[in-house]
Every structure is written in C-alpha cells, then in structure tokens.
Amino acid sequence: MASTTEYFDHVLILYRSVCASVNLVMRDGRPERALLKLNARSGDFDLYISEIVFPNELRKYAYYVLRQKKVIAGFDNAPDPEMLKLKYGPEYVQHRLEPLPHMHGVDKMTATLMDCMDAEQFLAWVQTNLALRVDS
Question: Does 38 reside within a domain?
C-alpha cells in the first residue's frame, strides 16, 4: 500500500491531468493525521475534495461535484443520521458517531448508502456519469 504522501501526490497528478485548473487549498501531514483539500474545475463542473487520513488508516472524506453552485453529487463518510437510520433501523442511535459512506444526489435531496471510495474513484465516477473529459 502506498504511503499517504504518495497517495496525495498521485491524487494531485491525476486531477491536474484531467482538470483545467486545480487549486491546492491545504495539504498537511502530521503524525496524528494527514489532510488534503483541493478544488478543481473542468468544463462546467467544480470539484471539491477533502480527505483526512489517520494513522490507523481510517479515512474521512467529502467529495462534491457542483455545476453553477448547485450540488450534482456528493460522496462522504460522515455519520449522517438518515443514513444511519437506513442501515441500522431503530438501533441507529448506538452508531450515531460512526462514519458511514453514502452519496448525496442533486441538491442533496436524496442519499444512498455506498461503499467507501477514494479521490481517484470519485474522479472516475465523475468522468463516467457526467462525461467529464480531459480539457485541452
């Protein structure tokens, strides 16, 4: 498995190869956690990536794609109460702080449970589902 530094390097190279502009908002590596935040633009789409990696390899992330400031899709693994109710039913309260991977639909009006993903898988989803292509 690649180190967090190598993974973040890979993510930056990948996004720079696909997007017209990439703005590195924050990159920080500390013993207690590593953090990457970037914004990218390609065509009509704005991509927002935020990822925190902890030493135990637990990851927290939020990946969003917007068009004209409107959420098209968002992926995160936050402890969302509605998603926890969907997964655990009445016992969801016992899991209220548990990160749970899910996807938000347009304008965050819908949400669906998902498998965990990373920034590379997010970009692949955007390319497949929103016809994002390499900008010339």
Answer: yes
